[in-house]
Amino acid sequence: MAKASPKKKAKEKEPEYIHVKFDMPRRYNWSTGRHLGHFYAQAKENKKIVGNRCPQCKEIWVPPTLVCPKCKVEMGWDLVELPQTGTVYQYTYLVLPLWDPHYGEKWANPYPSATILLDNGVFYRHRLEDTDKDKLKVGTRVQAVWKEDYEERGEGPADILYFKEIGK
Amino acid sequence: MPNRVAIVGIGQTYHTTRRPDVNQPEMVAEAVRAALADAQLSIKDIEAVFSANMETFEGIFLPDHGMAAEIGAFNKPGFKVNTGGTTGGSAVVEGFYMVSSGLYDVAMVVGFEKQDCGDTTAAISAAATPMWGKGAATGAIGEFAKQALSYMETSGATEEHAAMVRLKADRNACRNPYAHLKLGLKSVDEVLQSPYLVWPLRILDFCPQSCGACVLILASENKAKKITKKPVWIADVEVVHQEPFRAGVFGDPTGKETYTQHVACERLYKRNGITNPRRDIDTAEIYEPSNWEEMNLYEHFHFCEKGEGWKLIEKGITEIEGEFPVNCSGGVLATNPIGATPIIRVAEAALQIRGDAGEHQATRDIKTALASALGGPNWTILTLLKRSL
Ligand SMILES: [Zn+2]
Fold it and tell me: Taking the alpha carbons of B312, B314, B319, B321 in that order, is the dihedral positive or negative?
């Protein structure tokens, strides 16, 4: 039998950890590839959200993908431009700050984010415009707002700054 | 016909936030020794060792290489798996495959995570794909938060029900000598005073970050009967993967989403003649990262009708004394040493079948138990255990 959880002790033993400081920048260069690369290019060049349509089941996959996960067939290049308007299906916002899991920056709260049902029936996950958290509601109509400066685009999904509330 | 496989040894460390008194191999060795002692075997009896750890979380690659001596893997076959939240479940399945194939008669499955040595969230930041997702999601926790919101809106469950899930987990954890969070919570109000982390999830709606290890020894039928009087049989396993960019939108109105839990349990239930899970299975140890997810999973695994998971909690059906106890150990809500977590689910389910869970033994007799794992973009692994085949 292994030891059970120790009972609370009056005086904790001094921790014996070593701390190693890293100042090296990460030297990685990732390939977006042909399919995801097409999404990046359309976002940067044309401010468009694109997916591709499966030749067999006709489901649209975003970002475009090489193989339909359901049918296991090559997707090909039946590219589909997605609507940039939709309805908030689910949302959340940060109360305590969290890390951006992809870039390691700390997000300021409330950083609202949502699963949006785009007007063609495809789900798209993105952040919402910073707003009073009490104004967030399921069913809110929203629209993509892009980075206007061409030079600042090129970050794929992040070329869309946020989705902003629009009228019904 | 594959060989029958039994769990013949179970060991775990106590789980906690910090273990400055040991390094990672020393901590893992505690669980290895406990499992060997439980099986009354020597490390020399173990033919192959399969390990499970999310190595980047501690920032050291190849941790299994660094502990070949401590886990008894020196000069033996076996390898490490690393599949996100399901890591430990993958290792159990791997051990099962290896013994059922006849390649080995006695194999050991070792899962561990020492989260005081790293920063899990920062490690996810450093290693997740940067090409999809910036600005798109608040990680796993954000997805669970959004699911909680949908669950609340569609099922009629309230925050009080989520609080009741935590109370159940905490009561059970307080009876488990190895559990991590033992808060001694007394009331729903106490849970509802916990601050929000990611709306609508409170800190007490979510699992902790733990240090700990868990080890199983698996044996083929002939060996198992010689090693122990109380073998726990692995009746079946099921693994279901999901595409990377969608994680299953709860209550999907488009009908296009795939829920890996549905796929996994439908296959497993069909193969094993389970038509009414709550009647045909006696207990479950499910991988529930949040209070809300537990109610959600009751429905996904068909323990109840859709939209009624919260009623099982409200009626006390899944309590340790209840008709269908779930997570008698306190579950992931109390203890989460990532690479070990799904192995703990299987270990605790097996202890229930042996009747060796001590103070957190379910009141009813447990002959059949289900263990689940969840991770990554909503992957599911199920393990079905039985006292007799
Ligand atoms: Zn298809």
Answer: negative
Residue with tokens 């059922």: B100
What does CATH list as the number for B5-118+209-227? 3.40.47.10
Whether residue A12 is contained in a domain is answered as no
Shortest distance, CA B74 to any CA of chain A (angstroms): 23
Q: Measured between CB atoms, which of A2, A14, A157 is closest to B133?
A: A157
Question: Which pLDDT value is given to residue B122?
Answer: 67
What's the domain range around A53? 33-82
State the pLDDT at residue A9.
59
CA B278 to chain centre: 19
Task: Tell me, in angstroms, the distance from the centre of ligand 1 to residue A147's CA.
Answer: 33
Chain B hits for A61, Cβ within 8 Å: 243, 245
Average pLDDT over residues A29-58: 95
**Boundary residue ending a domain (A82, A102, A121):** A82
Contacts 24+ apart (CB under 8 A), B127-132: B127/B56, B128/A101, B128/A102, B129/A30, B129/A102, B130/A30, B130/A102, B130/A103, B131/A30, B131/A32, B131/A36, B131/A156, B132/A36, B132/A63, B132/A156, B132/A157, B132/B244, B132/B245
State the pTM of this model.
0.95
- Asked whether the predicted pLDDT for residue A103 surpasses 90, the reply is no
> In chain B, which stretches have pLDDT less than 50?
135-137
Q: What is the distance in A from the centroid of ligand 1 to the CA of B105? A: 42
B178/A2 Cβ within 8 A: yes
Please indicate, yes or no, whether residues A166 and A88 belong to a single structural domain of this protein: yes
Q: Name the residue with tokens 């990046």.
A: A40
**Does residue A88 sit in the same domain as residue A122?**
yes
Contact A48, A118 (CB under 8 A): no
* A5 near B CB under 8 A: yes
Q: How far is the CA of A56 from the centre of ligand 1 (A)?
A: 5
Of the listed ranges A23-27, A69-73, B121-125, the least confidently predicted one is: B121-125
DSSP labels, B180-223: S-------HHHHHTSPEEEETEEGGGB----EEEEEEEEEEHHH
Instruction: Average the pLDDT over each of A26-35, A110-119, B33-42, B337-346 and give the range with the smallest value.
Output: A26-35
One domain, residues A117 and A154: yes
Instruction: Measure A2 CA to nearest chain B CA, in Å.
Output: 5
Domain ranges of chain B: 5-118+209-227
Task: Give the residue among B3, B91, B2, B1 at the shortest CA–CA distance from B48.
Answer: B91
Answer yes or no: are the C-beta atoms of B202 and A96 closer than 8 Å. Answer: no
